């Protein structure tokens, strides 16, 4: 306790709980600094405001309103990229494929007849048969002889007699071995036989083999 003068009166006051009145400093102080109670060890006096504990009543800390915080700044939401349908492209225009030229098999050439046809005369190689009148070897001049029909004749080839036909309207002349006019060939008895002519001179037409 301590006294405080007020208008000529000494008014009694109490130090806050746990403090003693320091007569040197005239403040309520810690008991060890006030050095009032002889049962409490007295420490050296402290320097007010530096080493001395605070004096006066212990005040409760002021009640402050909670701080007003600004609203938190949130980053903008990350949205996935929009899913777009794939673009519809026209089909590519491709050039027409370049194909190699077709490989054709070589032409099949039939066998060359040993007895070629004479221009103006039809060859009939399938009508050949063995004939003793044909020589063993074909000479440079063909071997010809008469047929049973006046419009046909035989020509030897490889020891075979092959049947041939005279051009239309002619008969085989067995004497001159040519296709001749019927009146000169003298083969058909129903046709008047003229005197024989010389082929290429007095005869107007004759086919010689």
From TrEMBL:
Q: Which cellular component, as a GO term, is one annotated location?
A: extracellular region
| Keywords of the record | Chitin-binding, Disulfide bond, Glycoprotein, Repeat, Signal
Molecular function (Gene Ontology), one example: chitin binding
Highest taxon of source: Eukaryota
Q: Which InterPro entries match?
A: Chitin-bd_dom, Chitin-bd_dom_sf, Chitin_bind-dev_reg
Q: Where is this region: Disordered?
A: 61-111
Q: Where is the Chitin-binding type-2 domain?
A: 1-38, 131-189
One Pfam assignment = CBM_14
Under which name does UniProt file this protein? Chitin-binding type-2 domain-containing protein
Which species is this record about? Anopheles maculatus
Taxonomic classification: Eukaryota, Metazoa, Ecdysozoa, Arthropoda, Hexapoda
